[in-house]
Amino acid sequence: MDSKTPVKSDSSSESLYETITDDLVRQGYSINPEALPPSLAKALYQQVLELNQAEFDTAGIGRQQAHTVDTRVRTDEICWINGSTNTGQNWLNWAGGLREYINSQLFLGLFSFESHFAHYGPGDFYKRHLDAFKGESNRLLSLVVYLNPEWEEEDKGELVLYRDEHDMTGIKVSPTFGTVVAFLSEDFPHEVLPAKRDRYSIAGWYRLNNSIGNRIDPPR
Ligand SMILES: O=C(O)CCC(=O)C(=O)O
Ligand SMILES: [Fe+2]
């Protein structure tokens, strides 16, 4: 796969954007098995394999000053995607296309997007958590994409998405290659179960504009 191949917002991306948007309106989350354009998924997988160990950081919890590393909560490693490679840029363009589509349909005012590769080694996990707390963050929408070719059910490592704080069963999503999951960051607790193999993904968040976020939802 030539990583310079541009990934345009083709008709298959358009229909995926539409499905995600409709699902978000109906139920607040969207699960799309093996839906990312394959050329983009392959290039991203290649890229994550090429990242050398030094480029991954132990993942922490919270932002800026509140950032701490707590291995009771999560044990994965992450690497932020900044668009310095063609593949990184293609990914950001694809995620930007989704942002524009959602904004044009729902007037949510999603403003920016940030994302990182994540590597969970065998046995790694991320305990049940919310990606954002009401009134405390401007993360509105979470997006996760999986980069695991030939993932079998017995490899485990599912994402469990809980419908609300009372839900103890949840919906299990196997992290198969190209699966795309989106959910409202403040509404869906979720966790990552330990896997038997190396598990690669991208996790990203769409934010509201800080100043607008602060005006309509002032920090307490
Ligand atoms: O990799 C996943 O399935 C989800 C990761 C996650 O919840 C996070 O990074 O906040
Ligand atoms: Fe999360």
Give an overview of the whole structure:
The structure is a single chain. The chain is an alpha+beta fold and 220 residues long. The chain has a single domain, classed as q2cbj1_9rhob like domain (Jelly Rolls). 26% of the residues lie in helices and 26% in strands. It is built from 4 helices and 11 strands, in the order αβαββαββββββββα. It has helices spanning 11-27, 38-50, 86-106, 210-216, and strands at 29-32, 57-58, 77-80, 110-120, 126-129, 139-146, 159-161, 171-173, 180-184, 190-192, 199-208. Residues 118, 126, 131, 144, 159, 190, 192, 201, 203 line the site of 2-oxoglutaric acid.
Number of helical stretches of at least 4 residues: 4
User: In CATH, what is the class?
Assistant: Mainly Beta
Gyration radius over CA: 17 Å
Largest sheet: 7 strands, antiparallel
User: Which term fits the overall shape?
Assistant: globular
Distinct ligand kinds:
2-oxoglutaric acid, fe (ii) ion
Protein name: 2OG-Fe(II) oxygenase
InterPro entries: HIF_prolyl_hydroxylases, Oxoglu/Fe-dep_dioxygenase_dom, Pro_4_hyd_alph, Pro_4_hyd_alph_FE2OG_OXY
Domain Fe2OG dioxygenase: 106-208
Keywords: Dioxygenase, Iron, Metal-binding, Oxidoreductase, Vitamin C
In short:
With 220 residues, the chain is an alpha+beta fold. It contains four helices and eleven strands, in the order H-E-H-E-E-H-E-E-E-E-E-E-E-E-H. The structure holds 2-oxoglutaric acid and fe (ii) ion (FE2).
Structural features:
single chain; 220 residues; alpha+beta; Jelly Rolls; four-stranded antiparallel beta sheet; 11 strands; 26% helix; globular; disordered C terminus
